[in-house]
């Protein structure tokens, strides 16, 4: 199976100056746990619900009404290609210990997102078990 057959299609991204409150509303509205961050037509990072809590709220100096994506985002981006085998993407998620990966096409444009939930629906049981064990391990 290919990544494009399992991924969520049509993911949007926001810029680093997007207020955290807007990002949180997008997460709630779309029932998702991360928002890719892009600048100058390139992905530059990711904001997860965990980033908002651990890098933001848990930091005593955090003001959610003034905070921006750049204040809590994880810099850098790891991704997979839509034509990759699902197993390759899963092994990449395991190596990085991440629950989600942006998916790009041949033109390096983001076309979707593959999540641990997608893996749960489409991957063979052995691959799923190994992924869940590795990705959810404390790190």
TrEMBL record:
One Pfam family cited in the UniProt record for this chain: CBS
Keywords noted in UniProt: CBS domain
InterPro entries: CBS_dom, CBS_dom_sf, Diverse_CBS-Domain
Domain named CBS: residues: 7-65, 73-130
Taxonomy, superkingdom: Bacteria
Protein name: Inosine-5-monophosphate dehydrogenase
Organism annotation: Bradyrhizobium jicamae
């Amino acid at each position: 199976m290919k990544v494009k057959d399992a991924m969520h299609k049509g993911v949007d991204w926001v810029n680093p100056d997007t207020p955290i409150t807007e990002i949180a509303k997008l997460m709630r509205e779309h029932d998702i746990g991360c928002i890719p961050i892009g600048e100058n037509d390139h992905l530059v990072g990711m904001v997860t619900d965990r980033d908002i809590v651990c890098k933001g709220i848990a930091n005593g100096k955090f003001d959610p009404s003034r905070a921006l994506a750049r204040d809590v985002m994880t810099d850098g981006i790891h991704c997979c290609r839509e034509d990759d085998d699902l197993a390759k993407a899963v092994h990449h998620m395991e190596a990085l210990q991440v629950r989600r990966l942006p998916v790009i096409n041949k033109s390096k444009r983001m076309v979707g997102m593959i999540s641990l939930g997608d893996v749960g629906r489409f991957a063979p049981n052995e691959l799923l078990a190994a992924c869940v064990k590795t990705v959810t391990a404390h790190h």
